[in-house]
Amino acid sequence: MLNYSNFCRDLRNDLSEFLSRSVYPVLNKSQKKCMLDLIWGILKTGSIMISEIARALNESQPLIYTEMRLTNHLVKDDYIPAREALQTYAINHLLMLPYQVNVDETDIIKPYGFAFEDLAFVHDASKQKRPIEKGYFVTAMVGIGFNKTVIPLVLDIYSTKSPNFTSTGNRTKHLATDIFPSFPTTESRTFTFDRGYDDTSYFNFFNEHQCFFVIRAKHLRGYMTRFGHETLAQILARTKGKYGATFIDQEGNTRYVKVSSVPILHPQFSQGYYLVIECFHDLKDKRAYVTNIDCSTRDGCFKALKCYRMRWRIEEYFRFIKQEFAIEHFRVRSIKAMNNLMLMVNIIVTYLSAIIIDKNSVYYHSLAAYRSFADALVEEDIKLKYHEAGLMLYRMKRGLGQILQHANTLPKVPGRDRHKKKYEQLRLL
């Protein structure tokens, strides 16, 4: 029989210690209290709806007052220092060297929304033919931590209808610029992107900031090679691959590829880059990636290719937060409150990854509690796509949720507790 009382006690202490190390030093007492309540409620319910979080807190006052308190903090408080503190902590304590950051975009759909701030229109990527729906764009950046865990760094919701919006590219560069100071060194930083970021401005931006990048190239691009001006289709047609290797794909199959590199130039390039070409001879398919990594050797080619292979971890992150926290179901209306709520989700995912890395008592308590779930087929599907590190995120989150179902007391913010002095009626006899 599991001792849930001890499990809850260890979880309260461990969560308070994690927050004290990461984000508490830059917050005041009321912000700490609100953050702790939100994180505790989200972990317990698996929902970011304020009403569900308020019920999980089970305060003595009426439910409406708890909802108003949490909502007011999300709308009014500025959690930017906490966001920066979390990024610094994650990069310095959880990320694996050399640093690798994956960047991608997703969307949040609010088809029946009317009162949300600057509600825009996006393509719903979860449906066939990507129909246009009301919603918001989301830019995310995640790092690769120890044990190949996912470490979230940025989760930013924005609208193309906001007055200060200029372009998606400028916003992505601004978010990247914000996390640059968090790195202890300017060396060994690699950013990976999918085809949507194939733009000369991204190449030059990350190159000027002394970062490596790997971006999948679009087939319509043209470059200068030693044969003159060629389109990417022409380069792929004459390339057969030089270095051979095998790897295991997402379906668990062993694949054989041949890789080669081509130096490329362009009038808008700040310097020359490399085009790494990957040839799948069994499928008669070829892919190309633009990078500033030195790919004149075999090791350089496979270094760039390995970095792009890890880009799939951000897709795992999107699936995890949408499936386990239902991030599309929020009811707060301002974009500032939405981003503050997403910060709480990022803190939780960072905490789960820290547990997986440290393997402390909470890690084993969560595994013990998770055994009550009967979802072996789901586990196999997750493990096949995202390997053991991805599966552990689900185990930790669901295990902690099971433990919190038995929690009767909430954790307290570290510091001096102020108790009101108890007065007694004066008696003459």
Describe the structure.
44% of the residues lie in helices and 20% in strands. It has 13 helices and twelve strands. The protein has helices spanning 4-22, 29-45, 50-57, 63-76, 80-93, 168-179, 200-208, 232-237, 298-309, 312-324, 335-358, 361-370, 376-404, and strands at residues 99-109, 120-123, 132-144, 150-158, 189-193, 212-216, 222-225, 228-231, 243-248, 254-264, 273-280, 285-291. The strands form two sheets. Strands 1, 2, 3, 4, 5, 6, 9, 10, 11 and 12 form a ten-stranded mixed sheet that branches.
- Global mean pLDDT: 88
Instruction: Give the strand content.
Output: 15-25%
Low-confidence stretches: none
Summing up helix and strand content along with how strands pair, one would put the structural category as: alpha+beta
Element pattern in H and E = HHHHHEEEEHEHEEEHEEEEHHHHH
**Overall 3D form:** globular
Portion of residues within helices: 40-55%
Sheet with most strands = 10 strands, mixed
Straight-line N-to-C gap: 55 Å
Radius of gyration: 24 Å
Q: What's the helix count?
A: 13
Number of DSSP-assigned strands: 12
